[in-house]
Amino acid sequence: MEKFKSLKDHVYDYIAEQILEGNLEPEQKINENVICHELNISRTPVREALIQLASEGVLKNRARKGFVVRALSPQEVVDLYGVIGVLDGYAARLAVNNLTEKDLANMSFYVESMDVAIKAGNYEMYHVQQMAFHDVYTKECGNSALIEEIGRLKSKLIKKKYADNGDGKTQEILYRTNEEHREILKLFQEKDGDRLFDYLLNVHWRQSYAEYDAKQR
């Protein structure tokens, strides 16, 4: 059953989307009045969402300036990839015997959807589909603290849309990453938890990807 979304959750998603699409840049101040007007809601859920995003490290609350989008240093991005790789691999190992045929079919659908998005240059849609792919098994790991921590750390990596300067580099990397999604799905189908843990940690969340991500910010 899908979790009911409060007004705060809707504001959270709205701000996250604005950051992802590049409408809110690092160090840019969040205008609470604009959000209240855009979403036609009171200030209270807006403040609640801002406080949550600040607690997760997506925003920071500066004295006399208010909430601004937090810029991650290259080293912080690398550090996050390392920690997320461990936790994501652990979640996959816990979930490996819990996934249903429907879960696996959904993951396969997301992989194919990512190929379509990459080919079309729709990198925002790629991001949405890859998040959904990983959420399938994360939500089935059976450890609520682990699910919450993975979500908190991944939220710090919210960023503007992937840069595409016409050299094909972005598409090349995303196609390669999606081939890794296919391998992850295959390992789930084989119920190989140990290989899943190793693959997610040492391949899918490897440092070279972190360094490329850091350059995109």
Write the SSE topology.
Blueprint: H1 7-20, H2 32-39, H3 43-55, E1 59-62, E2 66-69, H4 74-95, H5 101-120, H6 123-138, H7 144-155, H8 169-189, H9 193-204, H10 207-215
Antiparallel strand pairs: 1-2
Helix pairs in contact: 1-3, 4-7, 4-9, 4-10, 5-6, 5-8, 8-9
Which features does this protein show?
217 residues; mainly alpha; two-stranded antiparallel sheet; single chain
Walkthrough of the structure:
This protein is 68% helix and 4% strand. The protein has 217 residues and is mostly helical. The protein has a two-stranded antiparallel sheet. Strand 1 (59-62) and strand 2 (66-69) form a beta hairpin. The mean pLDDT is 89.
Tally of extended strands?
Answer: 2
Order of helices and strands: HHHEEHHHHHHH
Q: Classify the helix fraction into a percent range.
A: 55-70%
Class computed from helices, strands and strand pairing? mainly alpha
Strand arrangement in the largest pleated sheet: 1-2
Q: How big is the Rg? A: 18 Å
Measured by DSSP, the beta-strand proportion falls in under 5%
Large-scale geometry: globular
| Uncertain regions spanning at least 5 consecutive residues | none
Number of helices: 10
- First CA to last CA: what distance? 35 Å
Look at the structure and give the mean pLDDT.
89
Largest sheet: 2 strands, antiparallel
**Assembly annotation:** single chain
What is the compact description of this entry?
By secondary structure, this protein is mainly alpha-helical. The chain has ten helices and two strands; from the N terminus they run H-H-H-E-E-H-H-H-H-H-H-H. The chain starts with 6 loop residues before the first helix and ends with a helix.
